[in-house]
Design brief:
It is a single chain. The radius of gyration is 30 Å and the shape is elongated. The chain is mainly alpha-helical and 102 residues long. Strands 1-2 form a two-stranded antiparallel sheet. Keywords: ATP-binding, Ligase, Nucleotide-binding, Protein biosynthesis. This is Aspartyl/glutamyl-tRNA(Asn/Gln) amidotransferase subunit C. GO terms for molecular function: ATP binding; glutaminyl-tRNA synthase (glutamine-hydrolyzing) activity.
């Protein structure tokens, strides 16, 4: 298989699409590396896969999630009875980001 190297125009277009900046002197190195990647991926098209069964998952698991079930929780007064510091029906905690004592 012929070794492909991206042209400067192709490389510039790729960098523009990906919102990356191409620094001076990097074009040749990236063109070679991306060309090698494309050549490697291109090898996949030469594989004989007619006899290979298609699959979209390999674990055999059907559903790994439990069913969503609701359950009774604490009412507000029960929950607040466990809170060490409260004010006006709210839980009071120390400032996390600073700027206050409460």
């Amino acid at each position: 298989m012929k070794q492909k190297k991206l042209s400067e125009k192709e490389l510039a277009h790729l960098f523009e699409l990906s919102k990356l900046e191409l620094a001076e002197g990097e074009a040749d190195e990236y063109a070679t590396q991306l060309g090698e990647i494309l050549n490697y991926v291109g090898q996949l098209s030469s594989l004989e896969l007619d006899e290979v069964e298609e699959t979209n998952q390999v674990t055999g698991l059907v559903n790994v999630f439990d069913e969503d079930n609701t359950r009774e929780g604490l009412d507000h007064s029960e929950a607040m009875s466990q809170v060490p510091v409260k004010k006006d029906g709210y839980v009071m905690v120390k400032a996390v980001l600073g700027g206050g004592d409460e």
